[in-house]
Amino acid sequence: MQRRDFFRSAAGAGLLAAGLNIDRLQGAAEHKFRFAHLTDLHLKPEDGAEQGVLKAVAAVNALDPAPDFVITGGDLVFDVLEVDFERADMLFKLYRKCIGQLDCPVYHGIGNHDILGWYPESDVAESHPEYGKKMFANRLGDGSTWRSFDHKGWHFVLLDSIEYDEDSEDYLGMICEEQMAWLEDDLAGVDSNTPIAVMTHIAFVSIVEQLRSGANVALNKKIGVTNSLEVLELFEGKRLQLVLQGHLHRDEQLRLEGRKFVMSGAISGEWWKGPHLDTQEGFGVFDVDGADVHYRYHDYGWEV
């Protein structure tokens, strides 16, 4: 090979290698992203809650790198279970106003306090067009209280873990039969190698009560999903990596059999009265790299 041809070939090989490296970097970047999990906002005009939520929103917007999206984990407002329609309407409008300040897309999850009129203190009739879960579904859920979406190689599932208990005339944690059938169909279309994240307001798994009351204490039906085992069994053969939980206002991380169960504290802390036990007001930040997930709890600096 002539000297001139050698350098030309070497230069070409260098450019090819550089191109391959750029492709690898671009491919890696396509599977890296950040998202935030904001749960238990309990938004209302009183107790500085609106100012607190706006401060949390500003903290999300200030994250560097910026999140691709936000998932809200339920109990977005406080409290449409027991108020009249005018109050509930005001609360949902206030929520849309505050959360609308986010610089990224938002996927909304439902909590028990987001359900209109289930408590006798409310005068909203069952015949009202937004009674029960319809207000959330119409205003935040695109007509539903559960959904799924895909993002950069991951499959995300947002569940509705609240059902009405006729015996106690109160809510309980449960995934209903209709939703179970939907989830089974949804997962049938997900490749076995695709990492999956699930959001539930009420926890599937938690040791909060055991830490508070002893190792033999179980979650009751209002703070744990009663059919959690049946739900998790639907993920057999699938790559469930992450379960996002709320409701108990604690920063809790559990890892078992390759699955992370993360309770991302509460935006409202002790219902806007200060930190809840040892958990400051905050939200979860998740950095995803391929199938790996790194979580940290972000205290956004709210002081009562």
The main β sheet shows up as: 6 strands, mixed
CATH class of the largest domain: Alpha Beta
Give the low-pLDDT segments: 22-27
The termini sit apart by 77 Å
CATH superfamily annotation of the largest domain: Metallo-dependent phosphatases
Q: Percentage of helical residues? A: 25-40%
Oligomer: single chain
Task: Please give a structural write-up.
The chain is an alpha/beta fold and 304 residues long. The protein has 2 domains: 1-30; 33-299, Metallo-dependent phosphatases (Purple Acid Phosphatase, chain A, domain 2, 4-Layer Sandwich), CATH 3.60.21.10. The protein is 28% helix and 24% strand. A hairpin with a 2-residue loop joins strand 4 and strand 5 (154-158).
